[in-house]
Amino acid sequence: MKKTFDCVEMKRKTQEEIYEETRDLSPEKQIEYFRRAGERFWNEIQSLRTNRQADSASIAEADHGSPC
């Protein structure tokens, strides 16, 4: 079976990108970098939850109007 996604490769690539972006930063700037990344991640999770709830509400509304 051919592998279509390599998790380890993705992890290594992401680590390399983060290293390149942070290697010359002071400790204070590194903290700020990761704080902002955490905020972006949290906002993305909240957005996905909101979208999922909206989708569930739409499905429930459509099912409620169904004669079955």
Describe the structure.
- This protein is mainly alpha-helical.
- Helix content is 79%, strand content 0%.
- The chain is flat.
Secondary structure: number of strands? 0
Order of helical and strand elements? HH
| Structural class estimated from helices and strands | mainly alpha
Indicate the overall shape: flat
The residue ranges in which pLDDT falls below 50 over 5 or more consecutive positions are none
Number of helical stretches of at least 4 residues = 2
Helix content: over 70%
Mean pLDDT: 90
- Give the end-to-end Cα distance, rounded to a whole number of Å: 42 Å
Q: Major β-sheet, in short?
A: none
> What gyration radius follows from the Cα positions, in whole Å?
20 Å
- Please indicate the percent range of residues in DSSP E strands (runs of 2 or more): under 5%
Précis, in short:
With 68 residues, the protein is mainly alpha-helical. The chain has two helices and no strands.
Q: Which keywords apply here?
A:
68 residues, mainly alpha, flat
Helices and strands in order, then pairings?
Blueprint: H1 7-22, H2 27-64
